[in-house]
Write the structure tokens for this entry.
Amino acid sequence: MLSMRFKKAVPVLAAALLILAGSLVRAQDPPQESSSKPADAPSPAPEKPTGKPGKNDKKNKDTATDSAPEQPTWDPLRAEKDLEVGQYYMRKGDVDAAIDRFEDATLAKPGYAIPFRFLGEAQEKKGLKKQAIKSYQRYLDLYPHAEDREKIQKRIDKLHKGAEKHKN
């Protein structure tokens, strides 16, 4: 008995959905201009851009895509993925790409110490001594009880000596 009612209701519901869909499509069409001119009269040609700035060439300079950031500022999952990809680039020898990914990781999760250590290593490998010192120091500031603290401090001291030697 219930299945008979269901079989009768399906075509009725399908017809109702088709009617509703048709009305929604018509609702999105632009409104027709009503004017007193005859239906067979030619419509005026649209204005062509002349290449000169004019009152019709106004553009909205504040679009959502321009004013919105590319990626969210706090994104721990993206930070982890950036670390993973940065380490891959380091293994492949593409230090510049690794630096970019490690920097992205520091932006995605600013209080996370690990990206700063990897960033320091990449910068040290590239020869960017001052930036490497800053990255290593930031790592130690964020993670003062790091197991590799002594090792990192030795690297910082070595980079300081190298930077001073390079000055003289």
